[in-house]
From TrEMBL:
Gene3D superfamilies in UniProt: 3.30.465.10, UDP-N-acetylenolpyruvoylglucosamine reductase, C-terminal domain, Uridine Diphospho-n-acetylenolpyruvylglucosamine Reductase, domain 2
EC number(s) on file: 1.3.1.98
Protein name: UDP-N-acetylenolpyruvoylglucosamine reductase
Cofactors required: FAD
Organism: Desulfitobacterium dehalogenans (strain ATCC 51507 / DSM 9161 / JW/IU-DC1)
Family matches, as InterPro entries: FAD-bd_PCMH (IPR016166), FAD-bd_PCMH-like_sf (IPR036318), FAD-bd_PCMH_sub1 (IPR016167), FAD-bd_PCMH_sub2 (IPR016169), MurB (IPR003170), MurB_C (IPR011601), MurB_C_sf (IPR036635), Oxid_FAD_bind_N (IPR006094)
Family: Belongs to the MurB family.
Boundaries of every FAD-binding PCMH-type domain copy: 19-182
Pfam families xref list: FAD_binding_4, MurB_C
GO BP terms, alphabetized: cell division; cell wall organization; peptidoglycan biosynthetic process; regulation of cell shape
Catalysed reactions listed for this entry: UDP-N-acetyl-alpha-D-muramate + NADP(+) = UDP-N-acetyl-3-O-(1-carboxyvinyl)-alpha-D-glucosamine + NADPH + H(+)
SUPFAM superfamilies listed in its UniProt record: FAD-binding/transporter-associated domain-like, Uridine diphospho-N-Acetylenolpyruvylglucosamine reductase, MurB, C-terminal domain
């Protein structure tokens, strides 16, 4: 393949938490056909295959990963057509949001501060500030387990809070999004306001993976965690952020075991105090 290939590569370089052991093999395919070939060969030979984008919502294991770890950031093509844009799964969502604003298109303001890729955003129905991917998605192109390329309209996909029915079922290759014309000044002002709120409320100065827990119905995970007294508490190198209770930061030497232990203790205590079961939003990738 023409894309980059590395062996025994540090997983901590592939995620925003900066945590993880060594990956046996990491590939950065440069196009859909390379990704398809890797996928099919792994299927044929029974080799573990995992696909990630910018690693902004995952926790990698300290023990590392066997098999092939594929990074989608090379699938970064984009094509604008009036109010519609076709974009590869590895494209930066924040960059796409800014490009939409530069074109005077509204609908992606919520995504300006989200650090992940388009593919990951679709899989988890990423959202913020009252908006989400499902609001603007029109169609996705996917790779099936059999290696077939298909297109699915939004109506063929089930979306929920930070989830969609495609997760762990297929590989997303690209998405088509439909936006609307708007006032460029208002769009930019909204984005600037969202970014300011994010900077004020979130610990962007330390490695983290965004919100750790999903908000329970009618409540805020951060509020419950803070009320339970966990803000600032630490296990090993993992600490509940002093800025926001729903963020766990890496103080420099955190391990996956530190983070998982902290998550379990928070879940146990919040359930004990308030009877609420906190479910994780971040995804732990177990070793194999």
């Amino acid at each position: 393949m023409s894309g980059q290939v590395e062996h025994r590569y540090p997983l901590k370089k592939l995620n925003t938490w900066r945590i993880g052991g060594l990956a046996e093999t990491v590939c950065w395919p440069e196009n859909e056909e390379e990704l398809r070939e890797i996928w099919l060969k792994c299927q044929e030979q029974g080799i573990p295959f995992r696909l990630f984008g910018r690693g902004s919502n995952v926790l990698f294991p300290d023990e590392g990963l066997t098999g092939v770890t594929v990074i989608s950031t090379g699938l970064a093509q984009s094509a604008w057509d009036s109010e519609r844009v076709r974009v590869g799964a590895g494209y930066s969502l924040a960059r796409l949001s800014q490009e939409a604003a530069d074109r005077g298109l509204t609908g992606l303001e919520f995504a300006r501060g989200i650090p992940g890729t388009v593919g990951g955003a679709v899989v988890m129905n990423a959202g913020a500030h009252g908006g989400s991917i499902q609001d603007i998605l029109e169609e996705v192109k996917i790779l099936t387990p059999q290696g077939e390329l298909q297109r699915l309209a939004k109506q063929e996909i089930q979306f929920g809070y930070r989830e969609c029915s495609l997760r762990d079922q297929v590989i997303i290759l690209e998405g088509i999004f439909c936006l609307k014309s708007g006032d460029p000044d208002v769009i930019q002002a909204t984005m600037s306001e969202n970014l300011a709120k994010r900077k004020a409320a979130q610990p962007l100065e330390l490695p983290n993976a965004g919100s750790v827990f999903r908000n329970p119905p009618g409540d805020s995970a951060g509020r419950l965690i803070e009320k339970a007294g966990w803000k600032g508490k630490r296990l090993g190198g993992a600490q509940v952020s002093l800025k926001h209770g729903n963020f766990i930061v890496n103080q420099g030497d955190a391990t996956a075991h530190d983070v998982l232990a902290l998550i379990r203790e928070i879940q146990k205590d919040v359930h004990h105090q308030f009877g609420v079961e906190l479910k994780t939003e971040v995804r732990y990738i177990p070793p194999s």
